[in-house]
Write a structure and sequence with these properties.
It contains two helices and 17 strands. It has helices at about 75-85, 180-185; strands spanning about 10-20, 25, 30, 35-45, 45-50, 55-60, 65-70, 85-90, 95, 105-115, 120-130, 145-155, 155-160, 165, 170-175, 200-205, 235. Strands 1, 2, 3, 4, 7, 10, 11, 12 and 15 form a nine-stranded antiparallel beta sheet that branches. It has a two-stranded antiparallel sheet with strand order 5-6. A two-stranded antiparallel sheet has the order 8-9. The protein is globular, with a radius of gyration of 27 Å. About 15% of the residues are buried. Residues about 200-235 have low confidence and may be disordered.
C-alpha cells in the first residue's frame, strides 16, 4: 500500500473526458485526452462571515464553481468534435468549426502523482470556452506550440444516501482500502453514493481428453482415458 500522505504533488497524467447525456442523465465511457501539460483550478466560491459580540461568530463557505485551464500539446480530431463542436465534412473530409457550435458538458478526470501516493480526481460538470491557438516559425531550437482550454466547472445533482446533493468534484488516492474504486476510475465516472461497476476477466482452462488404448494380442482390454476439464480462473482487473 502506498504512503498515506503527500509532501508534494506533481506529474499530471491520464486526463480523460466523459460526455454527459442530458436526456438520460448519464455519463459516457471516459475517453483519453492525450498530451496534458498543465492544469489549473481556481475556486470561485465565497466566504461569508457573520459578526456578533465584536467577533466572527459564524462563517459559511460556498464552493459553487471552479474555473481553470487545461494546457495540451494538441487536440485530436475526435476531441475537437466531442468537446468543441467541430464537424467532419463527408464530401471533402475537412474538419470545420461552425459559428453555431454548441459546447457540451462533460466530466473531466485526471491523475496527479505525489511523493507518497497517487490522487485521481474528477470535476463533474465542465464546459469549455473557445480555446486560444498559437503558431510560430521554427528557429535554432524547437519550442512546441500548445493549446490552452479554459473551462468552468459547476456542481451536478446526485442522490447520496437518499438525499439530493449538488457535487462539484471528488477524488480518491491509492493509499486507502478502496482500490476497486481507484482502479475503475478511468473506466467510468465514479459518482458518490453509486456502486462502482467492476468487470471480471475470466481465463477459462482448456479441457484435455484422454485417448483410449486398445491392447493387442490375446484379447487385450481397451482402457479409456478420462477427460480432465480445466477450471477457469477469474481475475479482477
Amino acid at each position: 500500500m502506498a504512503s498515506t500522505t503527500n509532501k508534494v504533488r506533481y506529474g499530471l497524467s491520464r486526463v480523460h473526458y466523459a460526455l454527459y447525456d442530458e436526456d438520460n442523465r448519464t455519463y459516457g465511457t471516459p475517453k483519453t485526452l492525450a498530451g496534458a501539460v498543465n492544469i489549473t483550478f481556481d475556486n470561485e466560491g465565497s466566504q461569508n462571515n457573520f459578526y456578533a459580540d465584536n467577533v466572527i461568530y459564524y462563517t459559511s463557505n460556498s464552493s459553487a464553481s471552479d474555473t481553470g485551464s487545461l494546457e495540451l500539446s494538441d487536440m485530436t480530431d475526435e476531441a475537437m468534435i466531442d468537446l468543441l463542436g467541430y464537424i467532419r465534412d463527408d464530401t471533402t473530409g475537412v474538419l470545420y468549426e461552425p459559428t453555431t457550435a454548441i459546447y457540451p458538458t462533460f466530466a473531466l478526470l485526471y491523475q496527479i502523482e505525489g511523493d507518497g501516493n497517487v490522487m485521481r480526481g474528477v470535476r463533474y460538470n465542465v464546459k469549455l470556452s473557445r480555446p486560444s491557438e498559437e503558431a510560430g516559425t521554427t528557429s535554432d531550437s524547437v519550442e512546441p506550440n500548445t493549446k490552452t482550454l479554459n473551462y468552468t466547472a459547476s456542481g451536478r445533482d446526485f442522490t447520496i444516501d437518499g438525499e439530493p446533493v449538488n457535487v462539484l468534484k471528488s477524488h480518491i488516492t491509492n493509499a486507502g482500502d478502496d482500490l476497486a474504486t481507484f482502479n475503475a476510475w478511468f473506466t467510468q465516472v465514479v459518482i458518490p453514493g453509486t456502486a462502482v461497476t467492476t468487470t471480471n476477466t475470466g481465463n477459462t482452462g482448456t479441457g484435455n481428453t484422454g485417448t483410449g488404448n486398445t491392447g493387442t494380442g490375446n484379447t487385450g482390454t481397451g482402457n479409456t482415458g478420462t477427460g480432465n476439464t480445466g477450471t477457469g480462473n477469474t481475475t479482477n482487473p
